[in-house]
Amino acid sequence: MPSSSSSPPLRLTVWRPCRLEREYMDMNQGRSVDRTSFQESIYSWEPAESPLDSITSTEFTQPLQDVMEQFSPEPERSPSKRSVAELRKVIQTIDGILANAEGASWGASESSRRLPNGESVNLWQHRLLALRQHLQWVCDTFSSVPGANITLR
C-alpha cells in the first residue's frame, strides 16, 4: 500500500558524539559546554516504503512499535539509552514476528522492472525481513564506534 505522505515512513540515523576542536562556554550555566552533549550524524537510511506494512497480524504491530519507541529522537531520551547494543532488542522482536508463520508476509513494492519482452512487473519484497537485515548490518557496522547511538522515527 503506497504511502500518500511526502515524509519517509521510517528514518534510521546513527549518531556519535561530536569531535569538537574548541571548548565552548554555556553563558547561562557559566561553565564549559559538555562536549558529549553534541551529536553528529554518521549514517542515515530512509526506506521508500514502510517495513511495518508487511506485518499481517495486528497483535505484532504494537510490541514492535513499543520497542522502537525507545529510539525516538526526543531530547529526554539520552544517547546511552539508544545504543547500538539496545537495537538488538528491536531485532529480537522482529525475529519473534518472523518466526510466526502468520506474522508477516511478502508484498508488492512500489518498484517495478521492465522485462526483456517489454512487460513491466512489480517487484515483491518482504519489508520486515529487509528491515531486520538492515538493522543487523547497522549493529555489525557501528557497534565498535564509541558512543554510537540510534534514532528511529
Q: What descriptive keywords fit this protein?
A:
single chain, 153 residues, alpha+beta, 3 helices, 29% helix
Largest sheet data: 3 strands, antiparallel
What is the H/E order? EEEEHHEEHE
Strand elements, count: 7
Low-confidence stretches: 1-5
Strand content: 15-25%
Shape annotation: elongated
**Widest sheet: strand order?**
4-1-7
**How many H/I helices?**
3
Q: Compute the gyration radius: what is it?
A: 19 Å
Average pLDDT across residues? 88
Oligomer: single chain
End-to-end separation in angstroms reads 19 Å
**Class from secondary-structure proportions:** alpha+beta
Q: Percent range for helical residues?
A: 25-40%
Could you please describe the fold and organization of this structure?
By secondary structure, this protein is of the alpha+beta class. Helix content is 29%, strand content 23%. The chain has three helices and seven strands. The protein has helices spanning 58-69, 84-99, 127-142, and strands at 12-17, 25-26, 31-32, 39-45, 107-114, 120-125, 149-152. The protein has a three-stranded antiparallel β-sheet with strand order 4-1-7, with no helix packed on it. Strand 2 and strand 3 (31-32) form a beta hairpin. Helix 1 (58-69) packs antiparallel against helix 2. The longest helix has 16 residues, at 84-99. Residues 1-5 have low confidence and may be disordered.
Describe the structure concisely.
By secondary structure, this protein is α+β, with helices and mostly antiparallel strands. The protein has three helices and seven strands, in the order ββββααββαβ.
